[in-house]
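Following up on my earlier thread - several people asked me to post the actual chain instead of describing it. Fair enough. Here it is, all 225 residues.
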Amino acid sequence: MKTSTRIAGRIGTLLAGLLIAAVAQAQTVEIKTNMGTITAELYADKAPKTVANFLQYVKDKHYDGTIFHRVISSFMIQGGGFTPDMKEKATRPPVAHEGRESLAKGGKNVVGTLAMARTGDPQSATAQFFINVKDNGFLDPTLIPPGDPVPKFEYGGRTYENVPRAQLLNAGQLWGYTVFGKVTKGMDVVEKIKEVPTGTAGGMSDVPNKPVVIESIRVLDAKKG
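Reply from S.P.:
Thanks for posting it. Predicted structure:
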C-alpha cells in the first residue's frame, strides 16, 4: 500500500513537471482572424496558471470561431467567449487570479499586452481575454503595503489608515487584471480591429457591426517561429 502510494506520488510529480516544462516551451501563439494574423508571446514565467489555462483552451480549440465581441478604440479589444451570433460558449471553472504576481515581474497593462477578462469577482476569469490598445495603468493590480492593519493606504485620491488587510485583499477593484502575454507581430491587425464600427447586439454595446472572427489560435512551433 505504501509502495503504491509512493509510486503514484512520483508519477504525479513527474506529470506535473512535464506539464510545467511544456508550458515553459509553448510561449508563442498565432491568432488567426478574418482581418489578419496576430502573434503573441505568453508570459509563463509571470502568470504560469493563467498561461496553462489559456493553452488548454487553445488545445481544446475553444477559441476557433469565436469573435472579438467588445471593441473600444481608446481602450482594448476583447474576445474568446462568444460566437458570431452572440451565443456564449461554455467554459471550465475559473483560473486563479495572478495579477499581482504578474505585475511584480513586469506584467503591466500597456499597449499590446494580453490580459484576462473577468466579472467584478477577481476569481472569475475563464477563457475571455483582451488586448490593450493603449497604456491602461488603471487596470493594473494595486499593491498593498505591508502590515495588518495596513497603517496607511492611498487609493482613488483618498487616504485610508489602519485598514484590516483582509478588507483590502477582498476589495475587487484593487485586484486589477492579470497580464499574461504580449503581441510580438501583427499589431497592425490589432489597430485595424480597434477601428471597426460598433453597435449593440445581444444586449451588449461596443459589438462590431461586422463580426471580427477568431478563426483559430494555435501554438506556434518554435522552429518555425
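The first helix runs from residue 2 to 25. That should answer part of your original question.
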